[in-house]
Design goal:
Layout lengths: L8 H10 L2 H8 L6 H11 L2 E2 L14 E3 L2 E3 L3 E3 L12 H11 L4 E3 L7 H7 L4 E5 L5 H13 L5 E4 L9 H6 L24 H9 L9 H6 L5 E6 L2 H9 L4 E4 L13 H12 L5 E4 L5 H9 L4 E4 L1 H33 L12 E2 L1 H9 L1
Parallel strand pairs: 4-11, 5-6, 6-7, 7-8, 8-9, 9-10, 10-11
Antiparallel strand pairs: 1-12, 2-3
Amino acid sequence: MAAEPVNVNEFQELARQSLPKMYYDFFAGGAEDQYTLKENEEAFHRITIVPRILRDVSSIDLSTTILGYKISMPVMIAPTSRHQLANPSGEIATARAASACNTIMVLSMSSTCTLEEVAACCNAVRFFQLYVFKRRDISAKLVQRAENSGYKAIVLTADAPRHGRREADIKNKIITPELKNLEGLLSTNFVSDGGSNLDALVNGTRDPSFCWEDIGWLKSITKLPILIKGVLTHEDATKALEVGAAGIIVSNHGARQLDYCPATISVLEEVVHAVGGKVPVFLDGGVRRGTDIFKAIALGAQAVLVGRPIIYGLAAKGEYGVRRVLEMLKDELELTMALSGCSSLKEITRSHVTTKHDQQLLSML
């Protein structure tokens, strides 16, 4: 019998053993050379933690509040597609794990369970992730369904006007199931001459003309707050504020879109400075350890989103696996805070980390 995983990374190997190669590659892969995929994790390794000693850390409070909703830790479940490819229970298992751990799940529009099924399965706080289609009426219907089903925010994915080149999917000629949320609204049965049907599906349905000026349309069709996911620059963070975003998610789509774009942790501080505390900033990408979460909080994130580790936990051990991934990250963050002299998230400050840029400045003195 295989040993129980002792950290989040060990779930990846269990998932690889559990899944057909086509599906493992779909979840694990990135775009083109996968440079950014590696950098998302490795950039965290270049940030060191500067602890404080002899502080009272007998009680550690990891809780935080996201758009008015209190959660047990600064870790949310990122939107990832097609969970039933990882486990037959799909997004329902993931949502139940989120509920058990008292955190927020962002449900992908490309889920294999309908948004209504996920809403009915448990009482987790849920956000709904949205792509905008060429047929805006379909996007509007999805937003309305999410609002009617009790979702608390819309997460607009803004970095995917076209589909990134994921070469493993092309080689594997991956064919994915039709999207349940789009049944009766839009055919997702696209055929590609070049292998993966995902390219044909995305490029045939999503609206590549959707731009900053169109955020007003999205705001006009919902009362829900809108978070913009995919921001990597000071310029775009400023524009997100100008159009009334309720929050910003620093993300490169799990390195699945544009290869050689920056690792998210490396540009987090730039975005935080642009926002100036006006709205919350979240970090998505590369989080595998409690120390990673600590570093993101120190650089200004209110919370992080975790994607692939959730899928790996789901593939390896179902709902229990997702719960264990979340619990491991929480336990590691609590230990990191204790060893760094922080008894609450607000005590984690910029002075608790040293980045590569800091080190370069120090070498110049």
